[in-house]
Design goal:
By secondary structure, the protein is mainly alpha-helical. The chain has 28 helices and no strands. Helices cover 74% and strands 0% of the residues.
Length: 546
C-alpha cells in the first residue's frame, strides 16, 4: 500500500533535527560573553571594567542571543554605558576646578550616551546628562536643548528631575518669553529647585524687573542661606530699587564671610558711588583689585569713576586691562568707543561699534550708536545710510528718527529734518533734544516754507520746561523763536540770559551766542544752514544735539 501522508524518511527527520539544533546554538552563542559581562558588572570598580562590560555585551549581541537574553543584554549595555559616561562627567561637573582635559572627556562621555540612546532613546537620565554636556562651552546648543526637551518629557513621573530638565532647557532658549516660561514651569513643578530660582532671578535682574528678582533671590536664600551668589544678586536688585541700607547689610555678610574675595568690595563700591560716597567707592574698588587684579567688574567701574573725574588716561588703562582679560566684553568695547569719541578719535569709536554690530546684527542700538559717531565725525550721509537700515525694521524708532533728522540738519536739508524730528516727537514728547532742534530749524531756516515762529515758540518753551530753564543753548533757541515771530523784546531777554549762563569753556559757542544777541538787538532774525559735506564746517552748536 502506498503511503502519501504522515510519514517522513529517517534521513529527512535527522536533517530537520540537526538544523533546529544549529539555530538554537546560534541563538545563544553570545551567552558566554553575556555571562562574563554580568559577572564583571557586579564587581566593576573602574572605567576600564565598565568598558569591558560594554564590549562583552556588544559581543554577545553580535554573536546571537535568544529574545529574553537579548533584552537583558541591551539593558545591561545601556546602563553600563550611562554609568561610564556618568563617571567620566564627574571630572567636569563634580571636580573643582574641572579636569584640564574636560573637552576631551566631554566628547568621550557623549559618545557613550549616544551609544546607549541608540539602544533605548527613552533613557531619561541619559538624555539629561547629554543635554548638560552639550550645553558646555564649545558644545552644541541645539542638541543640548533637544536632549533637555526629551528628558523633560521622559521625567513626567519624577517632578524634581523634570523641573531640572526644564530649567536647563530654559537656560538654552533664545526667545526670552520661552526662557521665562521654562524657568517658571520648573519652579511651579518644584518650588525648591534652587537652580531654577536663581536662573529666573537673574533673568528678572537683566530685564530690570528688580522687585521680582528680589523675590526669587529671597526665596533662594531661605533654602540656602550661604549662597553668596544669591546674596550678591539680591543686593544688586535692592540697589537698583535704591534700597541701599538693605543692600549694604547683605554685602557686609558677603565681605565678612569672604574677606579674601573681591566680589563683596566691588558690590559695596557700586552702592557707595550711588550714594555719592565716591571716595569710599574708590577705596573699595582699589581693595577689590588688590585682591583680584582680574576683577573685570571692578576695572570697568573704576574706569567709569576715572572718566567722570576727567582722568581719561587712567580710565583708558582700566578698560584696556579689562578687555585684555575678556576681549569680547560688550561693556568694555562700548566704553572704549565712548572714550575714543570723547577724544575725537571717531575712527576707533566707529570700528568698535562695527564689532558690536557685526556680533549682534539684530541689536539696533549698536547701529544707532555707530550712526551717532558718524554724525559727530561730520559724515551725516553715512549716518543716514546706517539709520535707514534700522528704520526698515522699525519705522517708528524715535531714536533713529532723531539721529536721521539731525543728520539732515547737518546736510542742510531742512524739510526732511523737520519731517523726521516731528515723527520722533510723536513717540518721545519730552525729548529736549528733539524739541530744541525742531524749534531751532523752524526759527532759523533760510527756507521760507520751513519756518514757523508760532510753533517754534511752543516747542522751545516745552524744551525749556523739560530742562528747567537751565540750558543756555535751549534758551537761545527760545530767543530765536521769538525773533522769528517779531517779538524782539523777548528775543533779547532770552538771548541775554543764554549769554549770561554760558561759561568760558567754549569761546566759539559763546561768540556765536553773542552774535545771535546782536542780531536781535538789531531786530534781525537769525538764519543758519549747515552743509558739512559741502564746505569746511564750523564747530557744531550745542543746539544740534546728537
Amino acid at each position: 500500500m502506498t503511503r502519501t501522508h504522515g510519514w517522513f524518511p529517517a534521513a529527512i527527520l535527522l536533517g530537520v533535527f540537526l538544523t533546529l539544533g544549529t539555530v538554537a546554538r546560534a541563538a545563544n552563542e553570545g551567552q558566554e560573553d553575556l555571562d562574563k559581562a554580568t559577572e564583571l558588572q557586579l564587581n566593576a570598580n573602574s572605567l576600564t571594567d565598565l568598558e569591558k562590560v560594554a564590549d562583552l555585551c556588544e559581543s554577545a549581541l553580535s554573536k546571537g542571543l535568544d529574545d529574553g537574553n537579548q533584552a537583558f543584554a541591551k539593558q545591561l549595555l545601556t546602563s553600563t554605558l550611562y554609568q561610564h559616561a556618568e563617571k567620566l562627567s564627574s571630572a567636569i561637573f563634580d571636580q573643582k576646578p574641572p579636569h584640564q582635559q574636560w573637552p576631551l572627556i566631554r566628547n568621550l562621555a557623549i559618545k557613550d550616551l549616544e551609544r546607549a540612546l541608540q539602544q533605548n532613546e527613552k533613557l531619561a537620565d541619559a538624555q539629561f546628562l547629554l543635554a548638560r554636556l552639550y550645553a558646555l562651552p564649545g558644545g552644541d546648543r541645539a542638541k543640548a536643548k533637544e536632549a533637555a526637551a526629551h528628558a523633560a518629557e521622559l521625567f513626567k513621573d519624577d517632578p524634581p528631575a523634570k523641573s531640572k530638565a526644564l530649567a536647563l532647557r530654559g537656560a538654552l532658549q533664545e526667545d526670552p518669553e520661552q526662557q521665562l516660561a521654562d524657568f517658571s514651569a520648573a519652579i511651579k513643578i518644584d518650588p525648591h529647585n534652587t537652580e531654577a530660582l536663581q536662573a529666573r532671578g537673574l533673568y528678572y535682574l537683566t530685564k530690570n524687573e528688580d522687585e521680582k528678582a528680589a523675590e526669587d533671590f529671597a526665596k533662594l536664600l531661605e533654602a540656602d542661606g550661604d549662597n553668596f551668589g544669591a546674596l550678591n544678586a539680591l543686593a544688586e536688585a535692592l540697589t537698583n530699587q535704591q534700597k541701599f541700607d538693605e543692600a549694604l547689610k547683605l554685602i557686609e555678610r558677603v565681605i565678612t564671610a569672604k574677606p579674601d574675595s573681591s566680589i563683596g568690595y566691588t558690590a559695596r563700591a557700586r552702592i557707595r558711588i550711588l550714594q555719592k560716597d565716591e571716595a569710599g567707592g574708590l577705596e573699595d574698588l582699589n581693595k577689590a583689585l588688590e585682591i583680584d587684579k582680574n576683577d573685570v567688574a571692578a576695572l570697568l567701574m573704576r574706569a567709569r569713576y576715572y572718566y567722570s573725574q576727567k582722568e581719561i588716561d587712567k580710565a583708558k588703562a582700566d578698560v584696556d586691562q579689562a578687555l585684555a582679560i575678556r576681549p569680547g566684553m560688550v561693556q568694555g568695547i562700548l566704553m572704549q568707543a565712548v572714550m575714543a569719541a570723547e577724544q575725537g578719535d571717531y575712527a576707533t569709536a566707529i570700528t568698535n561699534m562695527e564689532l558690536l554690530a557685526n556680533a549682534d546684527p539684530k541689536n539696533p542700538e549698536w547701529r544707532l550708536q555707530m550712526a551717532q559717531f558718524y554724525s559727530a565725525d561730520k559724515k551725516p550721509s553715512q549716518a543716514i545710510e546706517i539709520v535707514n537700515t534700522v528704520l526698515k525694521e522699525d519705522a517708528a524708532n524715535s531714536v533713529a528718527l532723531q539721529i536721521r533728522g539731525n543728520a539732515y540738519l547737518s546736510l542742510g536739508d531742512h524739510a526732511k529734518a523737520v519731517k523726521d524730528l516731528e515723527a520722533a516727537l510723536q513717540n518721545d514728547a519730552k525729548n529736549s533734544g528733539v524739541l530744541n532742534n525742531l524749534a531751532w530749524v523752524l526759527s532759523t531756516s533760510p527756507d521760507d516754507n520751513v519756518r514757523d515762529g508760532k510753533k517754534a515758540i511752543e516747542l522751545a518753551k516745552r524744551a525749556c520746561e523739560v530742562t528747567e530753564y537751565k540750558r543756555p543753548h535751549i534758551l537761545s533757541t527760545l530767543a530765536a523763536a521769538y525773533a522769528e515771530s517779531g517779538d524782539w523784546e523777548n528775543a533779547v531777554k532770552w538771548s541775554t540770559k543764554a549769554v549770561e549762563m554760558s561759561t568760558d569753556d567754549d569761546q566759539e559757542i559763546l561768540t556765536q551766542l553773542k552774535d545771535e544777541l546782536q542780531h536781535y538787538k538789531d531786530k534781525k532774525p537769525f538764519r543758519e544752514r549747515q552743509e558739512v559735506e559741502k564746505e569746511e564746517a564750523k564747530p557744531q552748536r550745542p543746539e544740534l544735539e546728537i
